[in-house]
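Cross-posting from the modeling subforum.

Setting up a comparison between two proteins and wanted a second pair of eyes on the formatting. Protein 1 (sequence, then structure tokens):
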Amino acid sequence: MLYRKLGRTGLKVSSLCLGTMTFGWSADVKTSHAILDAALDHGINFFDTADIYSFWVDGNQGGESETIIGEWLKTKDRRQVVIATKVRGAMWAGPNGQGLSRVHIMQAVDDSLRRLQTDYIDLYQVHYPDDETPLDETLAALDDLVRSGKVRYIGASNYPAWLLMKALWISDKSGYARFDCIQPHHSLLHRQEWERELQAACLDQEIGVIPYSPLAAGFLTGKYKRHDHQADTTRAGGSLIKQLLADERAFGVVEEAERIAAEHGVPVAQVALAWQLSLPGITAPIIGARTVDQLMDLVDAVEVALAPGDLEQLAGVSSGF
């Protein structure tokens, strides 16, 4: 496994981050713990979750993923693990049960710490913007968490470039802890959101970048074919998959990645991840798995060295996304 600094910080994280949205949803407790063990055994020290995972399962309010991680974490050396979680979504009833107000953040962080069975969170991220709360209120609350020791670093997810830069300006002006990491949606099949403006801003400001859905909800594993849209997946009914299945260009991207994968003798998903890891500014794509075998198909992506011609072909065929 390769390790990279998270932005300008001194924190070293594995160049693949294990996302845990499947925990408590399509992976039960035993399977989730096996996935975590396998990831750690292969050098992955960076684990991403959120307080709302998996809120849509059987009417649950959320917290299942954090709870599963917490049960696992108490058996490990906490110093060897980097835990990232998020705050913003609806976690309890009432008008303050969601959002990025001081009152919600202060309650939500204590709830996450309890479920994770730890006394600090390495990376605490705002899950998506809250237009009803002043940005300086959110940043002041997060700064208090850093100063208290409950949180080590803070980050943002789903923030456009202008909002990220505004947040950085407020933190600089006020002496607050700043966002040192951002989590954008990015893959060969979803490029413009990050590459249009966020990439330049992150490079200039030395912000760590941990993209989610780097395999486009499994589409870039090659499980879907032009002639066969059926696949063994929990994501088949999702809007992203439906959109990609209707777009012939998406199959062109997968087929080019499959050609390159065959030349390298690796799974196609590793090619998609290797392309992303080659991009300036990327720290660690967030990979997900609902079985240990799925994880094993991905972990060696850090060893795949794509030729300049391969990178050019992939960039060209995916340029419209």
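Protein 2 (same layout):
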Amino acid sequence: MNSKYHLIFASFVISTLLMIIKFIAYYFTYSSAILTDALESIINVVASGFAFYAIYVASQPRDMNHPYGHGKIEFFSAGLEGVLIILASIFIIFHAIQNFVHPVPMSNLPLGLSIIISGVIINWFLGYYVERSGIKNNSPTLIADGKHLKLDAQSGIILILAVGLVLVTKQEWMDGAASVLFASFMAWSGIKILRKSIGGLMDERDEETLEKVVDILKFHKRDEWIDLHNLRIQQYGADIHIDCHLTLPRYFDLDTVHENVHEFEDILGKEFTGHVEIFIHADPCLPLCCHYCQVQDCPVRQSPVTKTVEWNKLNLSLNQKHFLEKIDQ
């Protein structure tokens, strides 16, 4: 957790310094493109500040009012960042249109160009490192902040080209056109970040996490695990909650059932960096399970094995035992 704090604090400090430098550059150049970059940096600062708070709240232990923990705030933090990006893009387009109607003479463009280039390099490397750490720690806040910093760097390339063209061609309208192009790119990226955060808040199925869980279970599958269904995954920041129904031989005693459930939990728990909470509903097998049950020398078998049920995303997510699949599909 300390590494998360350090990363997001570094992002906040660097974004603040870059914002100040970019506004100074705008003061000397009066370039719409540079103002666009400076305004976008305000979003970096605000988002990093709230992200720091979100990571602090998400790290708090579960309590009576939050039985699943506080991790959901990370999705809210990412969503706020998306909203801020969209609002900034709207303001940038408005300012660029104003500049088209009432142009302001520009000056000292080489100075502004050198500042933008420096900002692009710093934001790209910082964003890459923050996003990679977010993926490693399964943190939506760090991922969103890293993507935002990389977005700032990518869009900065557009501004570099625009300011360079203005220097070469003396066509100052290109400065405003680059601002509009950059703002449109920003808005689209903000919408994608907002969409992903809303999905997390609404417990939308995360395909990547589901595929990882299914692959783990397929690799470690036991013959005694006759049927697995109603697999559901919820993400709370870096923490994951998993529900499922596991069918075991009906002649197992309670101790054996507990051992299998505990083994199932251990297999999944050690594969994720955050806390993994697993609720397993243990079902006894039924005679209709016999045709795909792989248990050898089963003392209660009533029919031979005639098929093998593949453990994939569809089969494991269905809220029904596998012998019912032909009825409902």
